[in-house]
User: Fold this.
Amino acid sequence: TQHSIQARTIQAEAMVLNTELAKNTTVHETAVSYLNLMRYTQLMDLQKQHMGDLALLKEKLSAIVEAFPGRRSELTQVLARLSQAENVWHDHAAKRREHQLNLLRLTGRSVEWATGDAQWPAMPAMSAEALAQLIEQTQNKHPQVLAAQREAAALQSDAAQTRAAQKPQLDVQLTKTATAASSSTSSAAQLYMVARWNAFEGYAGQAQEKSQLARALSAEERAQQLQSELAHKLRSAWDDEQTNQRRAQDLAQLAQLTDQVRRDYHDQWRDLGRRSLLDVLTAESEHQATRTTQLNSVMDAAQAHVRLLHEAGTLRDWIVGRPA
Assistant:
């Protein structure tokens, strides 16, 4: 019947939308793993630079200790800090390997290409007005919302079919016996009318119709709830991106200051004796912590942007549509 065909067509459209949603989810997982791979690769590079600075300090102190054995405790402090830095580097390497394996699982190909000088594409800034437009577009076109709406429409068509089946069915048949061509008389036609109606079904049809309508209403409410949740997720992702971008900019300026401080402390310790080795090591640690936090803020902003596009259902199109 027409209602049955319409219901099956809508169900097929919902399945296609669910497939697109699964693809977008896989793309999101892949993008997040790739960003984390970049994060830990760059953190390893930062930690390697920090280890190099400590190694130079160790060489200088080793030469000093040969002339002044009483300063061996300072060398011990540097060796301890260097050992801690090496442990942090190995932790970053383990995390990077974990995301390499995850990317291999998601893409089915080697990801050694992603551990070099890979860069995440520049992300255009999104204004509050653009965010409002994106929210409106997402609420109307997101695969999850469309799938729930299609499900509700299919259930309403099923209910209409069930309602129609409860009404009397009238079959009309017209028959006429064929006669010889030479005969001047024609046979009488017969009209048959058969009415069918299951009058004693115990209200099973009505119960089925009410069940289908209730499920359709539930699907409509779920679509409305999804629209509200998507708006909240988009605003949250946008806020996270804006916050991390501002933090990264502030920390970049702070990193320049801490770099100057550690250089000054090192010179004052080496040439003037006005700073202790502990001051130098503390300045080194603060500078490294600032650079690490700044890098994490940059990557957090990138992940927030990816989450924004994913919640909007446009991440796959954004990645696939980018020029190679």
Q: What stands out?
A: Residues 44 and 90 are 8 Å apart (CA to CA). The radius of gyration is 36 Å.
